[in-house]
UniProtKB/TrEMBL annotation:
InterPro entries named among the record's database cross-references: Cro/C1-type_HTH, Lambda_DNA-bd_dom_sf, MLTR_LBD
Membrane-spanning segments: none
Gene3D superfamilies in the record: 3.30.450.180, lambda repressor-like DNA-binding domains
Pfam families named among the record's database cross-references: HTH_31 (PF13560), MLTR_LBD (PF17765)
Identification of the protein by name: HTH cro/C1-type domain-containing protein
Species, as recorded: Luteimicrobium xylanilyticum
A molecular-function term among this protein's GO annotations: DNA binding
Superkingdom of the source species: Bacteria
Classification lineage: Bacteria, Bacillati, Actinomycetota, Actinomycetes, Micrococcales
């Protein structure tokens, strides 16, 4: 299946999912059969966006049509899409730069970036490839999540960790919220890469191994990354609170660096230092 076909299918599925989640009252529309208050009909969305019902139906069906940017902007306004969702729709239709299809995710990071990660201690830090493979980390991240060093390279992927590793799930008191937030951020980045083999393989594996992932993936949620608080329940250190930050090195634009800074007015920094002091050396 070509990349264009895959993107058209995803665009149609995304628009349908968002249409079915719209609140009718917010659009000054009455409930429909059996008192249902969510979900607009295709003709209702088409009329508000100024397109024909036939054309909009074809768009949701993933047919080979070329929507203009103006039409997609009108649909975004009609559906009240967030900025991240709007950009995602545009990227699926070819109105945003896409990475080269031949790009191969790095298997490891260069030495200078590893030194940068190591210098963040006692803050946990790690690096992600475009497919969210974990391609580098520091000792602080390893004591926070020891499995990262023990797992096979093909399993060392942040989405796989979140959705399939029970040890990681036990670390996260807000696993339901965190897992869906990560997936929404991954999807926001993955639009131009839908037909790439590593993306297809990753999603297929996760669907097969995690019912939670399959349900969350079907929601088509899209969000931009935003720095935020992250909490962990560590079996040795207890409760840990961090600020979650993400950086993109200027010389490695396909790699994202994640750093967890100890939250202010919390014992997290001291607890992480104690964990590092008591941990065995690499």
């Amino acid at each position: 299946m070509s990349g264009d076909t895959e993107r058209r299918k995803e665009l149609g599925a995304f628009l349908r999912a968002r249409r079915e989640q719209l609140d009718r009252a917010e659009h000054d529309l009455p409930p429909v059969a059996r008192g249902r208050t969510t979900g607009l009909r295709r003709e209702e969305v088409a009329a508000r966006a100024g397109v024909s019902i036939t054309w909009y139906t074809w768009l949701e069906q993933g047919r080979d049509i070329n929507p203009s940017r103006q039409v997609l902007d009108a649909l975004a306004v009609t559906m009240r899409l967030s900025a991240a969702e709007h950009e995602y729709v545009l990227s699926l239709a070819g109105y945003a730069p896409a990475p080269a299809a031949a790009a191969v995710p790095p298997q490891e990071i260069p030495a200078h970036l590893q030194r940068f990660l190591d210098a963040q201690a006692p803050s946990p830090a790690f690096a992600l490839a475009p497919d969210w493979a974990i391609v580098g980390w520091n000792r602080a991240y390893e004591v926070l999540y020891p499995n990262v060093a023990a797992m096979a390279p093909e399993d060392r992927n942040l989405l796989l960790v979140i959705f399939t590793d029970p040890d990681d799930r036990a670390l996260l008191p807000d696993w339901e919220t965190t897992s869906r937030r990560f997936l929404a951020e991954y999807r926001a980045q993955a639009g131009p890469r839908l037909a790439l083999p590593e993306h297809v393989a990753l999603v297929g594996r996760l669907r097969a191994e995690s019912e939670d992932f399959a349900r969350a993936w079907a929601d088509h949620r899209v969000e931009r990354f935003a720095s935020r608080e992250r909490r962990f329940t560590h079996p040795v250190a207890g409760e840990l609170a961090f600020e979650h930050h993400e950086l993109v090195p200027a010389d490695l634009p396909d790699v994202h660096v994640v750093v967890y800074l100890a939250a202010e007015r919390s014992p997290t920094k001291d607890r992480m230092a104690a964990l590092l002091e008591g941990a065995r050396p690499r």
